[in-house]
Amino acid sequence: MFAKAFFLLALIPSILAVDHAVTVGQGNTLSFTPSSITAAVGDTVTFTVVSRNHSVTTTNFSGAVCPPPPGGVGPNGFDSGFLSDLDGSLPSFTYKVVDTAPHFGACMQAAGGHCRAGMTFAINPTTTQTYEQFLANARSS
Ligand SMILES: *[C@@H]1O[C@H](CO)[C@@H](O)[C@H](O)[C@H]1NC(C)=O
Ligand SMILES: *[C@@H]1O[C@H](CO)[C@@H](O)[C@H](O)[C@H]1NC(C)=O
Ligand SMILES: [Cu+2]
Fold it and tell me: Which structural domains are found in the chain, ordered by start?
């Protein structure tokens, strides 16, 4: 009886965990679609590259935004490395969300050229660190 209840409670986080699908380079554009998501600890975010050759790499909210550094800015940052769809292979990268902090990402390609063109992405932006402000910071970095 108790064992069964504990077993069911243990299952709840995995049942509620969500995978957020993000398309990278939709319609051959320099973009992440959607460009901002809200995710819970335990959720995953799967980035699928559907054109050209891009990365998703965490970076600073402000200051030196573009290009994101190899390895990404942490804590709990990430870097997909370059993922090329030039061969039509639709490569993907999955990040598991381990905290509730905001994470700002961008593409490293072209020495920051894609990032400055607005190829930016946010997980859990806040009212003080909004996606719109991050995008503006990237465009002027
Ligand atoms: C993807 O881009 C990176 C960085 O510009 C480059 O080093 C790599 O060779 C590219 N990959 C392909 C398959 O073109
Ligand atoms: C941005 O990230 C780099 C690491 O790439 C770090 O050295 C730098 O201090 C960070 N902060 C700002 C405001 O640029
Ligand atoms: Cu790119």
Answer: 17-139 (2.60.40.420)
What is the 19 CA–ligand 2 centroid distance (Å)?
29
Ligand 2, residues at Cβ distance < 6 Å: 60, 62-64, 69, 73
Q: Whose CA is nearest to atom 13 of ligand 1?
A: 84
Phi, psi of 44 (to 5 degrees): -120, 155
Q: List, in sequence order, every residue forming a beta bridge with 121; answer none if it has no partner.
A: 105
The answer for residues whose C-beta is within 8 angstroms of residue 79's C-beta and 6 or more apart is 55, 56, 57, 58, 68, 70, 71, 72, 108
Instruction: Name the strand (E) or helix (H) holding 132.
Output: helix 131-139
Contact between 89 and 96 (Cβ < 8 Å): no
Please write the tens of the pLDDT for every residue from 34-76: 999 999 999 999 999 999 999 999 999 999 999 999 999 999 9
- Is the CB of 84 inside a 6 Å radius of any atom of ligand 1? yes
Q: What is the pTM of this model?
A: 0.90
> Which of 57, 58, 60, 78 to probe ligand 2 with, by most ligand atoms within 8 A of CB?
60
**DSSP state at residue 1:** -
